[in-house]
Amino acid sequence: IWQKTSGNYLAVTGADHIVKIFDRHGQKRSEINLPGNCVAMDWDKDGDILAVIAEKSSSIYLWDANTNKTSQLDSGMRDQMSFLLWSKVGSFLAVGTVKGNLLIYNRQTSRKIPVLGKHTKRITCGCWNTENLLALGGEDKMITVSNQEGDTIRQTPLRSEPSDMQFSMMKTDDRTSATENTISVVVGKKTLFLFNLNEPDSPVDLEFQQRYGNIVCYSWYGDGYIMIGFSRGIFVVISTHFREIGQEIFQAHDHKDSLTIIFTNSQEKLKDMYAIINLDDENKGLGTLSWTDDGQLLALSTQRGSLHVFLTKLPILGDACSTRIACLTSLLEVTVANPVEGEPPITISVDVEPNFVAVGLYHLAVGMNNRAWFYVLGENGVKKLKDMEYLGTVASVCLHSDYAAALFEGKVQLHLIESEMLDAQEERETRLFPAVDDKCRILCHALTGDFLIYGTDTGVIQYFYIEDWQFVNDYRHPVSVKKIFPDPNGTRLVFIDEKSDGFVYCPVNDATYEIPDFSPTIKGVLWENWPMDKGVFIAYDDDKVYTYVFHKDTIQGSKVILAGGTKVPFSHKPLLLYNGELTCQTQSGKINNIYLSTHSFLNSLKDVGPNELRQMLTQTLMLKRFSDAWEMCRILQDHAAWNELARACLHHMEVEFAIRVYRTIGNVGIVMSLEQIKGIEDYSLLAGHLAMFTNDFNLAQDLYLASSCPVAALEMRRDLQHWDSALQLAKRLAPDQIPFISKEYAIQLEFTGDYVNALAHYEKGITGDNKVTLNKDKRCIFIFVLFNTGIYNSILVFYCSFINP
Fold first, then answer.
1. Is 135 in contact with 126 (CB distance < 8 Å)?
2. What range(s) does the WDR19 first beta-propeller domain occupy (predicted)?
């Protein structure tokens, strides 16, 4: 039986008259020698005291987990004890005897209440409820219900001998009552008897099919459901709701020959079969099962005298640095691997069950509370380096090449991992952040090859440059920064603020970009480690991984886009992203690889249909994987696909690749145009040209005006014959061009029949230079046209423009 609550100790007894107490790692901590076989044992509600009764003894043995000492309590009973159970909520211990007598011991007050004649024969089973009511069953075929003073409140007869008694709550429509008011007990190994204290005159007797065999065991779970195991290997689930009583909700025959015991774990949901464990050496049969309260460890005893302990789930503790990952693979074991480089995994035995794990390029750190243990990952194996105590309980640790940074209680301590190996100045060995006069709390931190980066509750993100041992950058956000995730170089960083909004921050230009469609449930972010995909990162929660791309150089400026989402299996924690392959850690301590749905084009393209190829082409263009997109266009041989690739290259300012694509599809004109501009270094000017080629003229104008050659905007509008825009630009950029543009605009207006405005622009085109003065013939033609259309005021204007009006 496992210690309640913490599950640190396991008490085991067999036919050798000894109770042995092991810790959760299998080390024997104590033993209790008994005069005969152990009859019963139980831990109190807090797991502090183990109580044991044995044959040939009137004493109750009490082992204290805190002091590791055993004491004996005289029961005062003259007859042999047969039953023992601690209360669920109080410090009461109930002990029954073979003659039906009862003792209730209050450990808090040391008071013993003997109750003679509670039953007329041996007390065989019993249970406490959360109201400190005690139900008992005996060979006299009776159930009694008593309070903590031993007074009988209820009793009811049974048809046969009871066994395996439990208190629980029946499933009803009325959810106002949360008390455990129903006693369930196996009667004669054939029926399950349900006795509701609120309805003592209406007990329920559930009978099952003969072919199931005897009831071996049962367990309540969930919302009023009971799982029942039978001797012929069948187990069924029934509901205790009055409308469903007697109906089997679920049935399975997972055990071919027989079923020995069922033990449910309240932490888990009942679903499909999760695992089958075969114990080939146990040819004499199995004994009993016991879970820890957290469902992490399952102990099994056998008839051969063996004890098996299975680890059913682990804390998901893991870390990654570059392409190296470390994760907890057993309670006292961490495995370090580099799946990308193909290095064989290294298993490291650690001294404590860690609360945190961190890995660097050459080191591993594990720890709990305020201590961390450091290990060197050398070519000749792993060596324990040192342990270190911090000034508070450590929340997390980050490592890189030479330094470690620990976050504890709003502070970060940066220190050398191997101070004795580096000829370091004393001041560069360690430093505590923030400074004493800085009244902020650090909420998150990260370490790259060059920088310690941290975020605070005042919304500040600080960059500390380790080589120069000084701050080089800070950014102030309106609200506190909860989490930060820098890319491998530290030149870009994703941060999540207290509103659960996500942003990409670029310290080079101090710019932030909001991440679109950012889920408030996001737990973490990983950047792509594949060198060719620098702008790709994923954000993950418990159910899904979202792929984002930071497009730094586009004609529309820098922005973040959502490329797609990928479902992740239950209890998978992403550790590493490399070329679209996501390495995750599972609850069992194993590693599992998932391919992102946004990177499906990395699979073989041999049998892929055209429609699927077009979808993959869209994926590659979002991820800027132009070489992969080229391969798909080559397979598709579709002019529209080549054009889509070419436009994407222009959008991302990949001029050389765009030239290559346009040359392939025979677009000579744009190839020549691109050849002329490919050497331009002015970002805005180049982007303006490319925006013009994609027919986004308004954007092109804005980019030209922001460039070193703003007059290019005027030239573009003139070439496009956008005369209104050209005139507006000419006023600002080249006033001497206004007459020429006006003349061209007048010609266009004259051609469309808008003579009034045409005349006005012709007038603006007069420079006093004979080259552009309207000749007499043209004026006469205008007068003739205007006369015939009855526009006399305009005729007057024309007459007045002659030398002799």
1. yes
2. 2-267
